[in-house]
Structure formats: structure tokens, C-alpha cells
Amino acid sequence: MKPVNFIEMLGDHLGGLPPALVGAWLVMGILIVFAVMARRALAAAPDPAIPDEGITLRSVAEVMVEWLDGFVANVSEMHGSRRFVPFFGSIFIFILTANFMGLIPGMEPPTNDTNLTFALGAICFAFYLYQGFKSQGAHYLRSFLGPMLVLAPLMLPIEVADNLFRPFSLGVRLFANMFADHQVLGLFTSLLYVVFPLPFYALGAIVCVVQALVFTILAVSYVRMASAAH
């Protein structure tokens, strides 16, 4: 018996929209609502410099932002890395939330569809190319020619192929791991309904976090390499 997929059912009711698109919209909707509520909580605080006591929506948002700020700074090791936090923070939180949707019974993670993962890879590809030209100008093209001009005929096709393969590898890695994780989780939960699936949910949660981290770390490293002087 085929398991219920509420995202696919919702897509059918919306005119046959692809499940990955519907899932991505749901994730964006959840994150937008969370961001708006966190912003209102911060605006309503008597003193924004004083953190809330206990666990609140505002404190959770502040912890996330602070962690992302340090994470991007540590991975990029670049001066002024804070300017990259909005982009990579959005990428990380989006992928993490999309991955965790697969742990909800009757739902599938949008990231187990290549259309979404390749789109995320293409966005990161365009972003690091933009940062490369922004930081180095036309000199950025020099990085495709290798350490010595005499090696340019050999290094140019290698460097071009390497850069073109990066968004593909980002998309394939994320898709393959999330697809496999969801299939394993679905298999064991269909065989063992109570208590026993809990270790597999815990393992699935770890996979969700790790894959979001790996994708973001690789994307940050690409920007660091593109922005570095040669």
C-alpha cells in the first residue's frame, strides 16, 4: 500500500503542482511567519539589548542569528563575513526546515527532489561567481588559467568543468542523502509502528542537520575561494 503524501495531495488540489514546489512554498511560508513573529517580538521588547528570560520566540531567533553569524565567520575565515550571513543563513535554515519536513508522518522533504536541490545549487553557483567578480573584477577570470600562463590551455577546461560541476554536486549530494534517508525511515516505520521507529527518527534528524551543514559549508567555501586573491 502506497503511503499517504499530503504534499502531493495538496499539489493535486492546486492544479497538479509538483510536490517539490508545494513543499518549498510551505517551507517559505513557515519561515516567513516565524521571521515576522520574531521581528514583532523584538520590536515589542522594552529594551532590545536585554535578552528575554527563558525560551521565547525572540530568544530562539536571536540564538539562531548569533550561531549563524559565528558559523559563517568560522567557515569563510574572511574579513567582513557578516555580509554573507543573510544569504547563507537563509540557505541553511531553508534546507534544514525542508529536510525536517520528511520526519512528519505523511510528508516528504522537498529536498528529495532534484528540481529543488539543483535550483539551490544553481543559486549558490551564481552567488559565488558574483562574489568572485565583485571582489576581484575581471582579474577573477585569471583564476581559471592556473598558476602559470603556460599551463592555461590545460587548466582552463579543467577549471571550467570543475566550476560547472559544483552546483551539480551540491544538488546530487543533498538529493541522494535525503531521498535515501526518507526511504529508510519510511521502510522501518511501516514495519514497526510504535516505539521502535524512534531510533530511526533520531538518526533521520541527525541526517537532516548534517546535510544542511554540508551544503552550506561547501557553498561558503566556494565563495571564499572565489573571493580570495590569486
Overview of this structure, please?
There is one protein chain. With 230 residues, the chain is mainly α. It has one domain (6-227). Helix 2 (19-44) crosses helix 4 and helix 6 runs antiparallel to helix 7 (198-227). The chain is built from 7 helices and no strands.
Question: What's a quick, concise take on this entry?
Answer:
With 230 residues, this protein is an all-alpha fold. The chain has helices spanning 6-13, 19-44, 57-76, 85-100, 114-136, 152-191, 198-227.
Features:
single chain; 230 residues; 7 helices; 71% helix
Average per-residue pLDDT, rounded, comes to 85
Give the domain tally: 1
How many E strands?
Answer: 0
Low-confidence stretches are: none
- How much of the sequence is in beta strands? under 5%
Question: Mind describing the biggest β-sheet?
Answer: none
User: How many DSSP H or I helices?
Assistant: 7
Shape: globular
Order of helices and strands: HHHHHHH
Helix proportion: over 70%
Going by helix content, strand content and strand pairing, the class is: mainly alpha
Give me the Rg, rounded: 21 Å
Secondary-structure blueprint of this entry?
Elements lengths: L5 H8 L5 H26 L12 H20 L8 H16 L13 H23 L15 H40 L6 H30 L3
